[in-house]
Structure formats: C-alpha cells, structure tokens
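so my prof wants the structure for this chain in the tokens format not the other one, which i didnt know existed until like an hour ago. anyway here's the sequence
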Amino acid sequence: MTRIAAVHGALAPHRRTQSEITDMVARTCLPEGSDRRVLDRLHRSVKVSSRHMTLPLERYGELEGFGAANDVFIAAATDLGAKAVRGALHMAGLTAADVDLLIFTSVTGIATPSIDARLAGRLGLRPDVKRLPLFGLGCAGGAAGLARMHDYLLGRPGHVAVLLSVELCSLTFQRNDASMANLVATGLFGDGAAAVVAYGGERPGRPEETAGPTIVDSRSHLYPDTGRVMGWNIKNSGFQVILDPAVPDVVRRYLADDVEGFLGDHGIKPKDVTAWVCHPGGPKVLQAVTEALDLPEEALDVTWRHLADVGNLSSSSVLHVLRDTLAQRRPPPGTPGLLLAMGPGFACELVLLRW
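here's what i got, hopefully its the right format
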C-alpha cells in the first residue's frame, strides 16, 4: 500500500492579473505597432484571471537567450522547490532525514547536477537518499511521478518518498514570437511547484484519517502518431512550444477507452468515482474530458477553479488539484478516485486512488 501523507503547493512570488500579463506579452512578442486583438482574444478565451510569475514583468523583456532564462530557472526552482518540500514534510510530521527517495520532475528548465541534487544538502536529506530526476513528461509529469513513487514504495514498506514538481513556465515564453502556439501558451501557463510525501505500508502513530488517499494502481498510454501534438522545439532562444489545436480531438478519441478499461480491471465503473483529479489543460481540453467521460458539469469544478486562479502549472497543476480536492471536497472514505493528466508523447497517465 502507498499512502499519500501530505500535498503542499507553492507559487512563484509575483502575482499578476491576466490583463497585466497580456500587456507584457504584447510588448515582448508582437511586432511593434501590430494589431493585438488576436492576442487579447486568445488570452481571454483561456479563462485565466491571474497567474504567478518568477520575475517582475519588466524583466522578461531583458532575458537574452536560453542560457539566461535557464540560469534563472536553476536559482528559482531550487528556492521554490525547497519551500514546497519543507511544507509537505511539515504537514506529514516528518523530517528531511526520513526521506528515502526524492523524485524531481520538470519540463521548463534543465540542470546538472539536477535540482534534486542541489536540494539534498539544503534540505538536510541523508547522503544515501535515492534520487530520480524526470524530464520531458510535461503536464503529465505530476501523475507519472506519483505512479513511479508508487512503484518504488510497493517493494519497500516503511520507506518515505517525496515527489517534487517545479514548473517555471513563464521562462519559456518566446520573445518576438507571434505564433498562435506561443500566444496561447503565454496566456495559459503560470509558475509554481508542488511536493507530495508518501510512504509504503503503515507508519505507527500517524492518524490515517487525516492523511491523503492510498494509491491503488497506475496506467500509462502512448498514443500512435501524436509525437508532434505537444512538446518543445529546442532553439537558441530556449523552449519553443509545440501546441497543436488537435489536442482536444485526441482526448475525445482515446480517453474514454483508457479510463473505462483501467477502472474495469479493478471492478469499478466511471459512475463509482467520487472525485476526478484532472490536470487543467485548458478550457477546450477540459470540455473534451467532460464530454469523453460523460461527467456531470460539476465533476471538474476544483480543476476549473485552479485554472482561473493560477493558470496551468504544467506537471505541478494536477498535484495542486489533488491538494485542493483534499482540502475543499474530500470524498467519502473508502471510495475510488481517479487522478489523470496528459502530456507530450502524446500520452495519458492515470492513477487510481482510494480515499
């Protein structure tokens, strides 16, 4: 059994309204004197009211090239990641010395030594802590990270694992790029982190009723001929987003069979699920998920609120939605839940929970 002991979210320091960010994007991405009506329409359509940014808005126009943006990523991801992990360990009633495995996932910057290695001494982790840095999973990284955490803990009762996601999406926004994909991304994505603490088996003295759900199982599915639906073109200027308008169509084509098959293997039907912990891919993706799974309108309310409040935090978002589900809409004990996210590959990650 894998028990989630705590989920803690952290956000980048500079909160700005959507209109303020749109103005910054107009200055840095559009040709001087160009018509910004398409940009304004795209930024309104994503249903985001505010986001958190790593830098003050005026600094984004000063970032020259991939190296400068990635240097900011390394420093800021280490700071925000430390905050998230400390918060999660405190909530779980554990210390850094208790941690046996640290998994780190991100798709918005790179580092060697990896961010998890840089955090080890800062947090006081043991020298023999196991580390697993994950890159390239994109928005699916939070769900995939939980699945890999579960795989590890299944064979190690009593061990403690931490999953850390840090995504500083604003550092990937491309200057002087008026492509539709870049304009949509600059309207949708924000900066944040999340940490999950879990352990295998039971831990004496821990009141299970105050902890999170158990992880029952997970499933991954790579979809054929979808490698260019979502991802990065890696250029001298950094990570240029690939974001195909066909993403909602891929969701409609594949998701229902994936979910029904996965749940069916455990004797569960979609109507039995008491909470859908869904990544906020954007309004069109959430509408596609709702239609594909024939969900009640209110089933994804927590996800919609997260999207409006802070935008899409890539791999961190589904973990924030898990935290908010536990805090705001904790399901009845013993009932099934499903955590799901999709990302580059194009791929789906499903994690079956028991509340």
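also thought this was worth mentioning. The first strand starts at residue 2 and ends at 11.
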